[in-house]
Amino acid sequence: MATKLRLQRHGRKNYAFYYIVAADSRAPRDGRFIERIGSFNPNTNPATIDLNFERALYWLQCGAQPTDTVRYILSREGVLLKKHLLGGVKKNAFDEAEAEKRFAAWKQGKDAAINNVIVKAKDAQRAIDKERKAAEEAVNKKKAEALAEKIAAKKAEEEAKAAAEAAEAAAAEAAAQATEAPAAEAPAETPAAE
User: Fold this and answer.
1) CATH number for 72
2) Mapping DSSP to helix (H, G, I), strand (E, B) and coil, where does residue 10 land?
3) Statement: residue 184 has pLDDT above 80
4) Rounded to an integer, what distance in angstroms lies between the CA atom of residue 47 and that of residue 56?
5) Residues forming beta bridges with residue 17, ordered by sequence position
């Protein structure tokens, strides 16, 4: 039986995530598998990998062949390096303590690089959010100014209308008084004539 380490697709359309499985090479992609050794989510930045390190190393030492993508994932997580270092220990090129020391140094550098990518992504997102906020504030300021102008224009129009009505009322009152004054004087003169 040819065992392969490969990805098994899950998720929904346009948002796939994968299980990393050890399976018989003759089994369907999403079918039967021997063991699930991890998961891979490419939808995050950087991609999220959850891997059972010991079981992946075990399957590699048993002769399981990884697919290209799984080989990249195992390389990124350090499983292939660990297998290589254990091969050097087996050949007596160096001892286990030296192998662990080399692996720890590599892992520390890899973790620092991944954290750097995460920090850069967060900084870029903050910059984008800051630009969006500034643009939104500018738009809101323009809207507020336009609204203030509209309110001022409406208020001025209402004041002009009120002033015109007041002037009309004053003119009507003056006209009424002018009409009342001669009418009031005329009856006064008439009784005097009698």
Assistant:
1) 3.30.1320.10
2) strand
3) no
4) 18
5) 10
Task: Kindly report the pTM of this predicted structure.
Answer: 0.63
**pLDDT band at 175, cuts 50/70/90?**
confident
Residue 48 structure tokens:
């999220």
> Which DSSP string corresponds to 126-191?
HHHHHHHHHHHHHHHHHHHHHHHHHHHHHHHHHHHHHHHHHHHHHHHHHHHHHHHHHHHHHHHHHH
Q: What's the domain count of the chain? A: 1
The answer to whether position 52 is within a domain reads yes
**Displacement of CA 119 from its chain's centroid (Å):** 15
Q: 3-state class of 87 per DSSP?
A: helix
Residues 89-134 have pLDDT tens digits of 889 888 889 999 999 999 999 989 989 988 998 999 999 999 999 9
Q: What is the pLDDT of residues 126-145, one digit of tens each?
A: 999 999 999 999 999 999 99
In a domain, 28, yes or no: yes
Cβ-based burial of 20 (10 A; exposed 0-12, middle 13-18, buried ≥19): buried
- Read off the tokens for 77: 């997580």
